[in-house]
Amino acid sequence: MDLALQVRDLTVRYGGFTALDHIQLDLEQHTTLGLVGESGSGKSTLARVIAGLIAPDEGQILLGSQELRKKRSREQHKKIQMIFQNPDASLNPKHSIRQILSEALLFHRIVDRSQVETRSKELLSRVQLEARSLDKYPHEFSGGQRQRIAIARALSVEPSLLIADEPTSALDVSVQRSVLELFHTLKAELNLTVLFISHDLGVIHAVSDTVAVMRQGKLVEINTKDQFFVRPEHEYSRELLSAVPKMPQ
Ligand SMILES: Nc1ncnc2c1ncn2[C@@H]1O[C@H](COP(=O)(O)OP(=O)(O)OP(=O)(O)O)[C@@H](O)[C@H]1O
Predict the structure, then answer these.
(1) Model pTM?
(2) Three-state secondary structure call for residue 104
């Protein structure tokens, strides 16, 4: 089993408040780990510290066999890409889609200038958008389409880990489904390794191979998806599952 990510004893404090408490987590290559837990349990903090957006107070993060230290190189930053609930967080509204994609491709030296257009069109096609979208601006797209563009931008730099923090939570249910289907397709086509955060167990069921449950800054259960949904181990996981509204029979 090859591990894409290892998190060891990771602790983050905001002042006197411990948001992450000695987290241990392994993420196998080419799998999707669904991270669930109630609001405030520390899911986004874990995502941000892995992505290098905040520094841990204690602990280690290894990407492959390489330890990621507080000050990351450009190459290390590139390897972990993040998608947020609000796609606008990663899309500059003043830039066309062409500019957004080419900036990422060139900054990280993924292709040279002569190949940027072809690669940008390929990326749009991967996320099921038309090539003519290149000359449009983010505001000309729907929320679901903007999320697809944010996904294309994240994929453009060929990350070894994609972190998706509630990427479908702001979308209508039907749009949400189509973005989840896209994740499914991309995972199969590109062998992605994904940390997918959601408070929605239906979404977690749709995307995950493994499920991790957070509560009050601690990981209380890590299990295969099938085990988690059928035979959760932790009392809190059972509470989460029993709180899911059921359709009347
Ligand atoms: N910059 C910050 N300064 C102080 N406290 C913070 C900061 N960011 C988060 N927190 C606190 O840390 C805890 C964990 O927050 P976090 O956003 O990681 O949880 P979450 O599980 O992602 O929640 P949600 O599902 O609501 O996004 C919360 O109690 C939050 O109020």
Answers:
(1) 0.94
(2) helix
Phi-psi region of 242 (alpha: psi -120 to 50; beta: other; left: phi over 0): alpha
List pLDDT tens digits, range 27-41.
Answer: 999 999 999 998 999
- pLDDT at residue 151 is higher than 80: yes
Question: What is the 41 CA–ligand 1 centroid distance (Å)?
Answer: 7
249: pLDDT confidence band, cut at 50, 70 and 90? low
Mutate to test the pocket of ligand 1, among 11, 12, 17 (most ligand atoms within 8 A of CB): 17
The CB of 44 under 6 Å from ligand 1? The reply is yes
Cβ of 43 closer than 6 Å to ligand 1, yes or no, is yes
Instruction: Tell me the HSE value of 159 on the side-chain side, using a 13 A CA sphere.
Output: 29
For residues 160 and 172, give the distance between their C-alpha atoms in angstroms, rounded to a whole number. Answer: 29
3-state secondary structure of 92: coil
Q: Residue 209 carries which DSSP code?
A: S
- The answer, yes or no, to whether any atom of ligand 1 lies below 6 A from the CB of 42, is yes
Q: Cα–Cα distance between 117 and 119 in angstroms, integer? A: 5
> How many CA atoms does the CB half-sphere of 221 hold within 13 Å?
22
Handedness of CA 14, 16, 19, 23 (dihedral sign): positive
Give me 234's structure tokens. Answer: 């932790």
Residue 195 forms beta bridges with which residues? 33, 163
DSSP structural state of residue 95: S
Residues 6+ apart with CB under 8 A from 75: none
Nearest to 75, CA basis, from 192, 153, 160: 160
- Name residue, tokens 């602990």: 59
Interatomic CA distance for residues 145 and 226, integer angstroms: 31
